[in-house]
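To: structure desk
From: M.T.
Subject: fold request, one chain
Message: Could you run this one when you get a chance? Sequence is below, nothing fancy, just the single chain.
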Amino acid sequence: MANRLGVKQTTVGTPGFRQVMGDLYASAAVTDEQVANAKKDLEALEKQAASKCVAFYKIEVQFGKNHHINGTPTYGMVTIWESGTKLHGGGDSLLYVCPGKSLGKNECESVIPDSVNGRSVVVCPHCYTSWKNVELIGQHYYRLPIQKWAEVIYRWFLRLNLNADIRVKYFYDDIRAITAKEKEHHIGGDFLERARSSDQRISRVYPLANILKDVNAGADIYNRILAFLKA
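Reply: Done. C-alpha cells follow.
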C-alpha cells in the first residue's frame, strides 16, 4: 500500500511503479514534483530521528599530556558513564564494573547500573555477589599504542550493546601522577576533579547518532573509532 506521499516500498519489476530512491517505488500517478517532495520529507524525518538519538552510555577516554598517535604506547584511563540525558536529567553517573574476575572470585566483569550503586554494599545483578563499594572498579587504566586503544574502545562499545557516545579528553597533567597523589592523600577525587576542569582539558565527542550514520553508510566501527582517536 502506498503511503500518504504516494510512494511505497515494493520489489523490482512491480507493474505500474518506477524506482525513485533505493527500494522505494512510485506509481505512474505520482508526479516527479511529488517524488521530490517525498524525498525531502524522508530526509527531514531521518535528520529528526538522528537528533533524537540519545545514547544510554558514554565511554570516556582520558589521555595524559604525553599522548601519541604514531604507535608509541600512550597512558590513559577509561571510565563508563550512564547518560543523565536519557531520562531528561542532569549530569552523567559514573558506572562501576563487578570486580569478580579481577579478584579471582568468579568470571564476572559486568557493568553495574547506576540504580544499584550508592550503597556501602552492592550486589552485582549479574553474578549476584555482594561487594563493598570500595571494591568496585570505576577507572580502567591502559598503556597502549593508538591501534590497541581503538580495540579497547571497540570492545567497550560492544559490551555496552552498541549504545554509547565516545568522548575523548586530553589532559595537560599526567594522569599517572594525579592518580598517585589521589592514593597517597586519600582526598576523595580532588586531584582528578581538578584535572577534569574545563581549563585543564580539551574534549571531543563521537556521538552515537554519527556512529550509526557512518555504519549505515558501510563504515567499519573499529576503523571509525581509530580515525576518531587519531584526529
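Reply (cont.): Residues 83 and 89 are 8 Å apart (CA to CA). Let me know if you need anything else for the meeting.
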